[in-house]
Amino acid sequence: MKNLQPHSVWAHFATLCAIPRSSLHEAALRDHLIAWAVNLGISTQVDAVGNLILRKPASSGCEAMPGVIMQGHLDMVCQANSGTQHDFEHDAIQTVVRDGWVIAENTTLGADNGIGVALALAALEEPGLIHPALEVLLTINEESGMDGARGLAPSTLQGKTLINLDTEEWGHFYLGCAGGVDVEVRHDCAQEGLPSGYALMRLEVSGLRGGHSGIDIHLGRGNAIKLLVEALHELAELFNLRLIGMQGGTARNAIPREAFAVFALPAADAAQLEAWAQQKLTPWRKHFAKVDAKVSLACEPCNTPQGSSILRADQNRLLDFLNTAANGVARTSDAFPGVTDTSCNLGVVALEQGVFRATFKVRSLHDARADTLADEVVTHAASSGMRAWKDGAYPGWTPNPASPLLDLCQQVYRQEFGQPANLQVIHAGLECGLLASSHPHLDMISFGPDIRGAHAPGESVEIESVGRCWQLLKAVLQRLANG
To answer: In what helix (H) or strand (E) does residue 371 lie, and over which residues does it extend?
Structure first.
């Protein structure tokens, strides 16, 4: 990336790719940025929860102008293709430049939100840029809980306007986002030993594209957990199946790409499973031809030591619950055509040594609707005899079409690019809702470059759109400096 322009933005992004920054493991990157800022004479603050705030005084003559906050998050979603050896706590992200895009071929790239962070850092060191007082708020653990924004103390921020740099569609100003809440489900299953004459098998769903559980949920891509459960449900009707274990998904905010189960059935029936799997796969390939053409289903003997299966009653309980649990788009927006209003993603499931757990991510542009759908998932689990509860709720960001910052940004965008920007809300969780709760005076807007495949391996960011974001950010800051 060293030859890409704008050089300063890509240099910072290269640093973010080199320093591992999974959620809850941002300390090394934060320490590096503190040293970088101190070297430039930029003041630093780490708040009580671990957020990093960088401050630079206004340019000469602009001291009376209200301060501006640029905001992003330090962490990234960590996903890798099956068979890819990558330790996200120690290994650098490997990137390639191809056809105008920077890509991580076998892992997530971290352009969400590394490019936003890089843009803000580049603005702090840009020579000759005329600007008001600048603050850069870099939060921690956005991807797995929004803990940084949630823990930001009131009155921490001094600026009056905030530019969030965490959206992924160039040419759009975002002025609202979905809120969200997690649902956790647990159940302790009774176990029993396997009868003699049973064969151990492994059933795996793979080859799916996955994606962001908010902005990609409307695309109709396959959910590996849902497909695995559908297949297990059918197998349990055909054979005397004994479920032993199950695993699928790695993050509640990513559409699961892979899932597998280990089970036993009479050895005499095992020979039929390969043909059954191919027959089962045929309609899936037809159904997902346009969105997940590489979906795969494989069933083969398992060499792990024989363990205990869960009792038939618990097996039926789990499969029936997962087969009927909410997943996908629940409602589209009346106010914003083509935008998802409310959705649910079955993101993680595990059954290990009789202990079952599942995690759902519920989102909505209306907080009450997210709460209602989450309550429905909790009630459904309870009616199936399982424990369930809501956790990690965060508010949405209510649009303000009369925002002075939005008006100014529209003027600048038209001046720089000769056409108006589109206005949009996003079916994903930006930190703006939580920041508005702790700092209600802030006037906020969000924009960013074109990013594809966030939260999934193969994530990429368009080089040209990064340059345009940089052009826009500098022009907006200079306009704000001029009042």
So the answer is: helix 367-383
* Token pair recorded at residue 82: 């099956």
| Alpha helices, H only, 53-146 | 111-125
Give the pLDDT confidence score for residue 50 in this predicted structure: 98
The confidence score (pLDDT) of residue 18 equals: 98
Q: Give me the sign of the Cα torsion angle 242, 244, 249, 251.
A: positive
Q: What is the pLDDT of residues 99-139, one digit of tens each?
A: 999 999 999 999 999 999 999 999 999 999 999 999 999 99
Query: Residue 207 region, left (φ>0) first, then alpha (ψ -120 to 50), else beta?
Result: left
Calculate ∠ Cα 102-457-220, nearest 5°: 115
| Residues in contact with 338: Cβ distance below 8 Å, sequence separation at least 6, in sequence order | 332
Q: What is the pLDDT of residue 217?
A: 96
Give me the active site residues, please. Answer: 75, 142
Q: What is the CATH number of the domain that holds 253?
A: 3.30.70.360
Locus of tokens 């993050």: 251
Looking at residue 483, its pLDDT comes to 81
pLDDT of residue 144: 86
Q: What is the CATH number of the domain that holds 466?
A: 3.40.630.10
Which pLDDT belongs to residue 307?
77
State both tokens at 271.
Answer: 């020979």
> Domain range holding 96?
7-178+396-481
Radius of gyration for the chain, computed over Cα atoms and rounded to the nearest angstrom: 24
- DSSP class of residue 453 equals S
Residue 285 three-state SS = helix
**Beta carbons within 8 Å of 2's beta carbon, 6+ residues apart:** 10, 11, 14
Residues of the chain with pLDDT under 50: none
Instruction: Report the alpha-carbon angle 368-181-227, nearest 5.
Output: 115
- Looking at the domain assignment, is residue 1 inside a domain? no
